[in-house]
Amino acid sequence: MIKQVNQLIDASGSIRNCWQWLANFWSKSIPKDNSIAITFSNYPTVLKGEKVIHQDIQEHGGGGAQIVLAFVEFENQLANISVNQKLTAIFISDGADSMVTTLDRKMKQNLSGNLLNHRINFI
User: Fold this and answer.
1) N or C, where is the chain less crowded by C-beta within 10 Å?
2) How buried is residue 77: exposed, middle or buried, by Cβ count under 10 Å (0-12/13-18/19+)?
3) 1: pLDDT confidence band, cut at 50, 70 and 90?
4) Strand order in the sheet with 86-92
């Protein structure tokens, strides 16, 4: 059984001070095979295969944080992954969404949930 690793990585301005460390760690430690990274700031960007996280946060956003849009993209990617695959999802963020006061409501309004019943190890 192939293991799939999905990462949702905050690339907003508030992460700027630790971004280079994060980009280096990801590039050296996370296998690229069967891996999808979703970086997010004002919008999500999907990195698959040989695509890398750039040292310059501006390549991935560097602005506000739209956590909901990142999870919407995660659901989109999930639809293309077999339910038989072992799936680990890693969420890295300081939690400072651009509209944190409405985050819970926006998540409920915009996300469908795990409709295919994937078994997800969420970190």
Assistant:
1) N
2) middle
3) low
4) 44-48, 35-40, 3-10, 86-92, 120-122
How confident is the model over 104-117, as pLDDT tens digits? 899 899 999 888 88
**How many structural domains is the chain composed of?**
1
**What letter represents residue 20's amino acid?**
Q
H or E stretch at 8: strand 3-10
Asked if residue 62 lies in contact with residue 13, where contact means CB atoms within 8 angstroms, the answer is yes
Specify the residue for token string 């946060």. 57
Residue of 39, 76, 79 whose CA lies nearest to 55: 39
Q: Domain limits at 54?
A: 3-122
DSSP strand E in 11-96: where?
Answer: 35-40, 44-48, 86-92
Question: CATH number for the domain including 26?
Answer: 3.40.50.410
Tokens of 65: 């944080």
> pTM (2 decimals)?
0.88
